[in-house]
Design brief:
With 234 residues, the chain is α+β, with helices and mostly antiparallel strands. It folds into 2 domains: 88 residues, no CATH class; 124 residues, eRF1 domain 2 (Nucleotidyltransferase, domain 5). It has 6 helices and 11 strands. The strands form 2 sheets. The protein has a 6-stranded antiparallel β-sheet with strand order 1-11-4-3-2-5. A 5-stranded mixed β-sheet has the order 8-7-6-9-10, with helices on both faces. Helix 3 crosses helix 4. The termini are far apart. About 5% of the residues have low confidence.
Length: 234
């Protein structure tokens, strides 16, 4: 699940209310630095792993379950969960694209468009080679358009991090342009499960990019004591 950063303290408090005393552990993962993940382990066996875009707080690895440590953790949580302020967004799929700049939760500039790229095998007498060349030319045209819009809109001001989505190969081709090297080197959040890029999808990408990702594991509910074995001896 994804939780808006402004609501993360409320969510953590709710987790503790539902599952009992919580042990906190700030730690990194094999893919991210120390402080990028917060692991909550509750008394009833429930766990929640919280992952932020770029951690605003990095403490290595600490843990504790006392009220004092929990209070300190909540105080630090808001700053830790705060996402990068200035986000560059590049979404591209065969047939469409969307690029933009976000400042906080606001999309301040954007460009959304369509560009036809054939996606199925040609019918009739076309040779496979001719079809492949035409399809590649169309994809190259799409990539070129996205690059030009990114240069004009996304690079209009500095960005703190990059959000990408759509077709992985097309995104890779866009970012391979040397003029966009400053984007390729930024911290990145990938949203390749997004649908065809439209304005509403671009706005959704901005919100999701800013969110804290939560992996929740809850224990199976205890059997109801009132439920008894219905079998009878014969």
């Amino acid at each position: 699940m994804e939780v808006d950063p402004e609501r993360i303290v409320l969510w953590v408090n709710g987790f503790a209310e539902r599952h009992g005393e919580v042990t906190w552990a700030w730690a990194g993962t094999s893919m991210a630095p120390a402080g990028s993940s917060l692991v909550l382990a509750a008394a009833d066996g429930a766990t929640a792993i919280l992952e932020t875009f770029v951690p605003g707080f990095s403490s290595g690895s600490t843990s504790g379950s006392s009220a004092a440590k929990e209070s300190a953790g909540l105080d630090m949580l808001t700053g830790w969960a705060e996402p990068p302020s200035r986000l560059a967004l590049v979404l591209v799929r065969r047939g469409g694209y969307a690029v933009g700049r976000g400042e906080g939760p606001t999309l301040v500039s954007h460009k959304v468009g369509t560009r036809y790229v054939q996606s199925r095998t040609a019918a009739g007498g076309w040779s496979q080679q001719r079809f492949a060349r035409r399809r590649k030319n169309q994809a190259d045209g799409l990539v070129g358009s996205v690059i030009e819009h990114a240069l004009r809109i996304v690079l209009a001001s500095p960005s703190d991090a990059l959000v990408v989505g759509g077709d992985k190969a097309l995104v890779r081709d866009v970012l391979a342009d040397a003029r966009l090297s400053s984007l390729a080197d930024l911290p990145r959040r990938e949203l390749f499960d997004l649908p065809d890029p439209k304005l509403v999808v671009l706005e959704r990408a901005l919100r999701r990019a800013r969110a804290v990702r939560v992996t929740l594991s809850e224990p199976d509910p205890e059997p109801d004591a009132a439920v008894v074995d219905s079998s009878t001896d014969v």
